[in-house]
Fold this sequence. Notes:
By secondary structure, this protein is of the alpha/beta class. The protein has helices spanning 37-55, 71-80, 84-100, 117-129, 159-164, 204-216, 230-245, 276-282, 285-292, 305-329, 338-359, 364-382, 389-406, 410-416, 418-436, 440-452, and strands at residues 2-5, 10-13, 21-26, 59-64, 133-135, 141-143, 180-185, 200-202, 220-226, 250-256, 259-261, 264-265, 301-302, 455-460, 463-468. The longest helix has 25 residues, at 305-329.
Amino acid sequence: MKIYNTLTRQKETFTPVHEGEVRMYVCGPTTYNYIHLGNARPIVVFDTVRRYFSYRGYDVTYVSNFTDVDDKIINRSHEEGKTAAEVAQFYIDAYFEDTGKLNILPADKNPRVSDHMKEIIDFVQELIDAGYAYALDNGDVYFAVRKYEDYGQLSGRNIDDLMAGARVDVDEKKHDPLDFALWKSAKPGEPAWDSPWGQGRPGWHIECSAMSRTYLGQTFDIHGGGQDLIFPHHENEMAQSCSASHADMARYWMHNGFITINEEKMSKSLGNFFLLREILDKFPGDVVRYYLLSVHYRSPLDFDDEKIAAAARGLDRLKNAYHNLLAAQTKAQGSAGEAEAGLRDQLQAVRAAFETGMDDDFNTALGLSALFDLARDVNTYLRQDSHERALLEEAQKCFDDLLYVFGLDFSAHKADDSLADDLMALLIDLRAQARADKQFALADAIRDRLSDLDIILEDGKNGTTWKKST
């Protein structure tokens, strides 16, 4: 398995820290607003990465944090007349509501900053004791960037270039313009915690260093997030963690590409973002998830409604093949001879193609291509006169395994559509009776009216099946 490592700027063979285990930390949201589609991409991407590791037999520990202490949360609390904790909890609840519709697996841990002040304060003290940080007389604590010789290696930025673009306020007391806050002294009206340097709260970057170490250890396997986090957030995390431990923070750094609107990055600051819940009001969660996985995670993904509508049509093709497969199992009796041997070979080829694509830096586009090959092969086999039940079950197992990795569950949709299935079965029976009674005009009218509703009837030797038009 190859993973593109942002740190080395190349694909590397994946070798876990602990054999048979994968430990992942993915930066979660700052809980002051609903998540937008750009926020949803890393959530879906790394959920899929996690699922693929599980498919491959690894024991995965997945941690994703909530930043519930932050300037933006404090500002929102003042605007709404609530406490910062109430604001954070509201948007954490909204996060789970929205991501639940994307079929995101629960994290093993969702640590919150407010619950880990001791670990954060201890981490800051370690950096002070090791000479990598310093406290000012006003209670602020800063990380001394120039003390860490490898600063800039993750983002590829030169420290002198950073210095040239730095600005320092007149009353700034930190030793160097590049130094960043580990602990901020308390201000009136803000939440604060006791510390050796006085009351205050942590800076943004220190929280993930402290919480990842708490749950995953000094060095873990994968640190993930959006491309926008490479600098300064992940760069600063790496500097802190490596300075404290003199060991790698993570072996592999993974970052997904941006979602763009007319090729411009989607972001709250630019005002060109779409809230995930707004999109979910227009499109089902599985369609949105499929759309987010339709291109390689490191590539940019341009957004518009037609692209999601196209994703919906593609997903319907897969669903139709899957549901046809389930329906065929209830009627399977005999053997199709050479067709069975052919399908068994095709199932093996599909798995091999899927794993080849996903092993190459989680190329979901190639993985989905293998899934469409499976749908084609299944539909071809189902056109045979008879089918072997064991082979149909084997094909379903292949389907289910691949769908699991992509976070798609067609069996759930089948249950949700049970009423539609029953109604369609009734119409098919009525049409068959009309044909048997030589009422061909009525039979044709049923077929044509369903066609107007984008439902296609397909007559075969084993009876009539239906599907949505794609």
